[in-house]
Amino acid sequence: MEALITGGTGLIGAEVVRTLAKRGASKLTVFDINDSTQRLDELATSVTIQQGDLGESRQVLDVVRKSQPDVIYHLGGMLSLPSDNNPQAAFLANAVGTYNVLEAARIHGVSKVIFSSTIGTYCQDLDDRPIDDLTLQRPMLFYGACKVFGEHMGMFYRRKYGIDFRGVRFPSIVGPGVRTPGSVQYTSHMIEESANGRHFTIWVRPEMRVTLLYVKDAARAIVELAEAPVEQIQMVNYVLAGPSPSAQELADLVERKIPGARIDFEIDQEIQARLDKSIHPIDDRFARDEWGWQPTYDLEALVDDFLTELSQHPQRYA
């Protein structure tokens, strides 16, 4: 199997590359605006890395033509807060970029495109029921709006051109080396800052619950979705869920795992108000029923492996 991974030097993308390599992929190509090989570490010499911009159609067409992948894992783009701060750049990266990937797949005969979307496609006009794949998508942030558009473009290419498009809507991803700012990034920052002996202040209420997914589970999920038999794929785009600790529960666990950790709370009212509107429990039954999705990292295993990664591979996350 040969694969092209957009965004393959990033948090989830590098882990997807690592997962595919472990599963015996014969050729892996990474396309990313950031050509750093830091996260890829030992894989950097065995992976083809092409630096480029998703918003530039010629560059996307070129990498798809050269790599001739069996499947494209489309994980590249701008994240939530940077997208809100620069909508024009986000539109080019996230909306135009997804169109460019789908069109390149059509032109060059790539049969399968796997898309990374977000739970941020949901937000407004939610009731008290858990979010599932039938919940109305009305995002609040520009990032979420672009991802909804990306999902629907993929569905169009699936219907009209027969491309086997599939997608996952990730919740908050936890993993070492998170640098992009975000409303719920306190989860990753709390663990890493504490491991490095630094004080950390959480900006949400102690009782605030957020659904998390460890980065290794996220990578495995998107690969397993790609591998699932086509006849099992009915919903096409799927929400995923992992553990849902309160901020206090996570802090207590980190303090237990890291003696001397210094964690406290100072609520950012603006962030808290935004999260109060958008954070809901997640029901991922369609992914579980249709292609056997099941997270492997509960909260304690997540923290344990996070700390092991920092200890064993510090060069990846410096």
Automatic annotation (TrEMBL):
InterPro entries: Epimerase_deHydtase, NAD(P)-bd_dom_sf, NAD(P)_epim/dehydratase
GO terms of molecular function: L-threonine 3-dehydrogenase activity
Source organism, top-level taxon: Bacteria
Residue ranges constituting the NAD-dependent epimerase/dehydratase domain according to the UniProt record: 3-234
Gene Ontology biological process terms from the UniProt entry: L-threonine catabolic process
SUPFAM superfamilies: NAD(P)-binding Rossmann-fold domains (SSF51735)
Family classification: Belongs to the NAD(P)-dependent epimerase/dehydratase family.
PANTHER family: L-THREONINE 3-DEHYDROGENASE, L-THREONINE 3-DEHYDROGENASE, MITOCHONDRIAL
Name by which UniProt lists this protein: Putative epimerase/dehydratase
Originating species: Symmachiella macrocystis
